[in-house]
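Example (one chain per record):
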Amino acid sequence: MKNIRYMQRALELATQAQSQDEVPIGCIIVNPDNDEIIAETYNLSQHVEDATAHAEITAIRSACQKLGQNRLRGLDMYVTLEPCTMCAAAISFARIENLYFGATDPKGGAVVSGVRFFEQPTCHHRPNVYSGLLEKECAQILKDFFKQKRK
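Predicted structure:
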Protein backbone atom coordinates (compact mmCIF):
# COMPACT_ATOMS: atom_id res chain seq x y z
CA MET A 1 0.00 0.00 0.00
CA LYS A 2 1.46 3.33 -1.07
CA ASN A 3 0.23 5.12 2.08
CA ILE A 4 2.45 2.86 4.17
CA ARG A 5 5.38 3.50 1.84
CA TYR A 6 4.97 7.25 2.24
CA MET A 7 4.76 7.03 6.02
CA GLN A 8 7.84 4.81 6.02
CA ARG A 9 9.66 7.59 4.16
CA ALA A 10 8.47 10.09 6.77
CA LEU A 11 9.85 7.75 9.45
CA GLU A 12 13.20 7.64 7.65
CA LEU A 13 13.23 11.44 7.76
CA ALA A 14 12.39 11.33 11.48
CA THR A 15 15.42 9.09 11.96
CA GLN A 16 17.55 11.68 10.16
CA ALA A 17 16.21 14.35 12.49
CA GLN A 18 17.08 12.20 15.49
CA SER A 19 20.64 11.76 14.23
CA GLN A 20 20.96 15.56 14.24
CA ASP A 21 19.55 15.83 17.77
CA GLU A 22 16.25 17.20 16.49
CA VAL A 23 12.87 15.98 17.70
CA PRO A 24 12.31 13.01 15.36
CA ILE A 25 9.36 14.05 13.26
CA GLY A 26 9.38 13.56 9.50
CA CYS A 27 7.00 14.90 6.89
CA ILE A 28 6.45 14.52 3.15
CA ILE A 29 4.02 16.13 0.73
CA VAL A 30 2.90 13.97 -2.18
CA ASN A 31 0.95 14.50 -5.38
CA PRO A 32 -1.39 11.48 -5.31
CA ASP A 33 -2.13 11.83 -9.04
CA ASN A 34 1.39 10.81 -10.07
CA ASP A 35 2.95 9.68 -6.75
CA GLU A 36 5.57 12.43 -6.94
CA ILE A 37 7.06 13.48 -3.63
CA ILE A 38 6.92 17.27 -3.82
CA ALA A 39 8.66 17.97 -0.51
CA GLU A 40 10.26 16.00 2.29
CA THR A 41 11.76 17.30 5.49
CA TYR A 42 12.01 16.87 9.21
CA ASN A 43 12.00 19.07 12.29
CA LEU A 44 14.72 21.70 12.11
CA SER A 45 13.84 23.93 15.08
CA GLN A 46 17.05 23.27 17.02
CA HIS A 47 19.32 23.24 13.99
CA VAL A 48 18.19 26.57 12.53
CA GLU A 49 17.13 28.10 15.88
CA ASP A 50 13.60 28.76 14.67
CA ALA A 51 10.60 27.75 16.78
CA THR A 52 8.44 27.59 13.63
CA ALA A 53 10.70 25.13 11.78
CA HIS A 54 8.44 22.14 12.42
CA ALA A 55 8.50 19.41 9.80
CA GLU A 56 5.05 20.35 8.46
CA ILE A 57 5.91 24.04 8.11
CA THR A 58 9.20 23.42 6.34
CA ALA A 59 7.53 20.89 4.03
CA ILE A 60 4.78 23.38 3.13
CA ARG A 61 7.35 26.11 2.49
CA SER A 62 9.42 23.79 0.32
CA ALA A 63 6.41 22.54 -1.68
CA CYS A 64 5.07 26.06 -2.27
CA GLN A 65 8.48 27.23 -3.43
CA LYS A 66 8.97 24.22 -5.71
CA LEU A 67 5.52 24.63 -7.29
CA GLY A 68 5.62 28.44 -7.38
CA GLN A 69 2.29 28.83 -5.61
CA ASN A 70 0.90 29.48 -2.15
CA ARG A 71 -1.73 26.74 -2.14
CA LEU A 72 -1.22 22.99 -2.25
CA ARG A 73 -4.68 21.88 -3.35
CA GLY A 74 -5.00 18.21 -4.16
CA LEU A 75 -1.80 17.24 -2.37
CA ASP A 76 -1.37 14.84 0.55
CA MET A 77 0.75 15.29 3.67
CA TYR A 78 2.27 12.43 5.67
CA VAL A 79 3.70 13.30 9.07
CA THR A 80 4.84 11.00 11.85
CA LEU A 81 3.16 12.95 14.68
CA GLU A 82 -0.21 14.65 15.02
CA PRO A 83 0.27 18.30 14.03
CA CYS A 84 0.23 21.06 16.64
CA THR A 85 -2.06 24.10 16.38
CA MET A 86 0.49 26.11 14.38
CA CYS A 87 0.99 23.31 11.87
CA ALA A 88 -2.74 22.51 11.63
CA ALA A 89 -3.39 26.16 10.75
CA ALA A 90 -0.65 26.08 8.10
CA ILE A 91 -2.10 22.86 6.65
CA SER A 92 -5.48 24.56 6.45
CA PHE A 93 -4.12 27.73 4.84
CA ALA A 94 -2.12 25.67 2.34
CA ARG A 95 -5.28 23.73 1.43
CA ILE A 96 -3.71 20.27 1.86
CA GLU A 97 -6.28 17.74 0.62
CA ASN A 98 -5.46 14.73 2.82
CA LEU A 99 -3.52 14.62 6.08
CA TYR A 100 -2.08 11.28 7.22
CA PHE A 101 -0.34 11.09 10.55
CA GLY A 102 1.15 8.34 12.67
CA ALA A 103 1.16 8.91 16.42
CA THR A 104 -1.30 11.06 18.31
CA ASP A 105 0.03 13.81 20.56
CA PRO A 106 -2.27 14.20 23.58
CA LYS A 107 -0.19 17.09 24.98
CA GLY A 108 0.58 19.12 21.85
CA GLY A 109 -1.61 17.80 19.07
CA ALA A 110 -4.43 19.87 17.61
CA VAL A 111 -6.14 17.53 15.14
CA VAL A 112 -7.75 14.74 17.18
CA SER A 113 -6.35 16.02 20.49
CA GLY A 114 -6.40 19.41 22.17
CA VAL A 115 -8.16 22.21 20.31
CA ARG A 116 -9.14 20.02 17.33
CA PHE A 117 -8.37 22.88 15.00
CA PHE A 118 -10.13 21.51 11.93
CA GLU A 119 -13.42 21.24 13.86
CA GLN A 120 -13.45 24.93 14.78
CA PRO A 121 -15.88 27.27 12.97
CA THR A 122 -12.99 29.64 12.19
CA CYS A 123 -11.13 26.96 10.21
CA HIS A 124 -11.33 27.84 6.51
CA HIS A 125 -10.29 24.50 5.03
CA ARG A 126 -10.57 21.05 6.55
CA PRO A 127 -8.41 18.33 5.06
CA ASN A 128 -9.49 14.73 5.16
CA VAL A 129 -7.69 13.29 8.19
CA TYR A 130 -6.37 9.76 8.54
CA SER A 131 -4.62 8.91 11.80
CA GLY A 132 -2.77 5.91 13.14
CA LEU A 133 -0.68 5.08 10.06
CA LEU A 134 2.35 3.15 11.42
CA GLU A 135 1.33 4.56 14.80
CA LYS A 136 3.47 2.25 16.94
CA GLU A 137 6.65 2.94 14.99
CA CYS A 138 6.00 6.68 14.93
CA ALA A 139 5.37 6.77 18.68
CA GLN A 140 8.37 4.58 19.50
CA ILE A 141 10.97 6.77 17.82
CA LEU A 142 9.71 9.72 19.88
CA LYS A 143 9.65 7.73 23.13
CA ASP A 144 13.20 6.52 22.52
CA PHE A 145 14.42 10.04 21.72
CA PHE A 146 13.00 11.61 24.87
CA LYS A 147 14.06 8.68 27.04
CA GLN A 148 17.63 9.24 25.83
CA LYS A 149 17.32 12.99 26.51
CA ARG A 150 16.29 12.37 30.11
CA LYS A 151 19.36 10.26 30.94
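Caption: The first helix runs from residue 2 to 19.
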